[in-house]
Amino acid sequence: MDTNEPGRVSGKLPADVPTDVPTEVPAGNRLHASGRWAAAAGVVAVAAGVVAGELAAALVSPALSPMTGVGGAVIDAVPPAVKDWAVSVFGTADKLALLVGMGLAMAGLAALAGLLEWRRRFAGFAVIAVFGAAGLAAVLGRAQATGNAVVLPLLAAGIGILALRWLMSRLREWSTAGQAPETQPGPGRRRFLQALGGSAVFAAVGGALAVALRGAAAGVSEFRSKLALPAAVSPAPPVPAGAGLGLDGISPLVTPNRDFYRIDTALTVPAVDPDSWVLRVTGMVERDIELDFATLLSKPMTERHVTIACVSNEVGGDLIGNALWLGWPVRELLALAGPQNGADMVLSRSKDGWTAGTPLEALTDTRDALIAVGMNGEPLPLEHGFPVRLVVPGLYGYVSATKWLTELKVTRFADDVGYWTPRGWSERGPIKTSSRIDVPRSGRPMRAGTVAFGGVAWAQHTGIGTVELRVNRGAWQTAELAPGISRDTWYQWQLSLPLTPGQYEVQVRATDLNGVPQIEKASRVAPDGATGFHTIRVDVTP
Ligand SMILES: Nc1nc2c(c(=O)[nH]1)N[C@H]1C(S)=C(S)[C@@H](COP(=O)(O)O)O[C@H]1N2
Ligand SMILES: [Mo]
Predict the structure, then answer these.
(1) Could you point out which of 194, 306, 457, 509 has its C-alpha 20 to 30 Å from the C-alpha of 223?
(2) Is the model more confident about 7 or about 151?
(3) What number of CA atoms fall less than 13 Å from residue 206's CA on the CB side?
(4) How far apart are CA 487 and CA 435, in angstroms?
(5) pLDDT score of 112
(6) CA-CA distance, 369 to 285, in Å (whole number)?
(7) How far apart are CA 272 and CA 233, in angstroms?
(8) Which of 68-82, 213-227, 432-446, 452-466 has the lowest mean pLDDT?
(9) Considering 389, 423, 457, which residue would you say is the last residue of a domain?
């Protein structure tokens, strides 16, 4: 280090200054002091990492953060006797006690990480990496684990290591400048304390923000996990035998909640408390209605498999999924309200103000448009609209599938618009008939012989009649079509083709039960959904 630069006057002392220099503290003391600062750096660095992980969780993983994952794992691992003891000692503050205990244990380990890193480079990083691995293991072991949740402990550990690296380099600059910590107020000292203080402020402010953002979500998550849904008065028709072809790599007939695509404009997932939730029916109706959650749950429920899709789904894309939805038919609620003549649209509104404009007809005809509370046998996941959302067979999500639903305004297309319409998307959004090749994956080399092709096709509310494949733009060949669960769901299909070595382009085409084939001309997703044939390349090797 150049100790002659301006402002470094007090840094001129080499590290091994003679002990008779009066401003120098004894070596033992010096180590002691810098060790304390290193431990503080460890605590602040780990806190910054944890806070980064919790903040990211508030944005992308409301149901599971690294800390709630670790806390849950600790609760599961603790023997029942200890749990009873904790409840008897701390009462309803048992969770708080657990958090405080976890915080103290982590602070101790973090201080150790700082000390170790000070003594030996990378030793402290290793401790933080072990933290991250433990967090990852805890999160992976939770039922709510998702791809997003799994990344968070790694993010937290990464930020923790970077912060510690930064603080350690400042501490080393201070120390090698020869100013023993706690002696002279040189620039090295100031730079270190600024870094430490800045990181601590980030951790404190970010931590408060994370608690505020996550606190509400945690309460709602808790409510959700205890909620028992009513049984359906009108259960879903049984899944026909053979609807699932069992082909390796094909989309599952029913998409598990954790794999279900998520699309919305919500930066943080709205935390809607079912106890204070009400659904208002307003606008062009004979009677305004207010429905609370308990009343909704007491209504005769219908359960249906429905495949919903996003208008932004590219041909061959994965913004589509099939789930078993439980809810009260919208038409029954609207019948109670009594839509007035001239109304042709329902503007549904979510807790966060997002809106969708749905043709009144689609909510009152015989299709089972649902005020949904359940998804695949569970309460709606927070990301998918807990406690209540709309599900309308046959319409893209942006004009129908309002999550965190709070209002149904009966109105007219002439008077109101949904969120996406003024932003370049069509007023109406019926789902376009389409099909997808799931296996083999495009570009994956295959061995010559019989190649099994398979995938899904959908024409919601009409149903799929045939699925065909063609190779290198040759003749269309009819695939085996499994029965759909219903016309509102996707259907699986498969076809085995003998292929000799070479390169092939394979395309799929679906035709609906009215005999209308999917549109061949490729078009982009805006303004009302992509068209064209899903096309894959297959390399067959000898
Ligand atoms: N409140 C709210 N609901 C919403 C949206 C939104 O941005 N906000 N997006 C819609 C869109 S565009 C789609 S495709 C579906 C997606 O539902 P999912 O995330 O449960 O798959 O939700 C719809 N409901
Ligand atoms: Mo969408």
Answers:
(1) 306
(2) 151
(3) 21
(4) 14
(5) 95
(6) 19
(7) 26
(8) 68-82
(9) 423
Is the model's pLDDT at 186 over the cut of 90? no
Mean pLDDT of the chain: 89
Ligand 2 center–CA 319 separation, angstroms: 8
Residue 219 domain flag: no
Q: Which ligand is nearest to the CA of 322?
A: 1
Question: Residue 438 sits in a domain of what CATH number?
Answer: 2.60.40.650
Residue of the nearest CA to atom 7 in ligand 1?
Answer: 264
Q: 267 falls in which pLDDT band (50, 70, 90)?
A: low
| CA dist., res. 486 & res. 463, Å (int) | 7
Length of the chain: 542
Q: If you measure from the C-alpha of residue 323 to the centroid of ligand 2, how many angstroms do you get, rounded to a whole number?
A: 16
Residues with CB under 6 A from ligand 1: 260-266, 310, 350, 352, 354, 384, 397-398, 401-404
Ligand 1 center from residue 265 Cα (angstroms): 8
Same domain, 259 and 178: no
Q: Are residues 283 and 154 in the same domain?
A: no
Q: How many domains does the chain have?
A: 3
Q: Write the CATH number for 253.
A: 3.90.420.10
Is 184 in the same domain as 259? Answer: no
Give the pairing of strands 502-512 and 370-375: unpaired
| pLDDT of residue 23 exceeding 50 | no
- Confidence band of 19 (pLDDT split at 50, 70, 90): very low
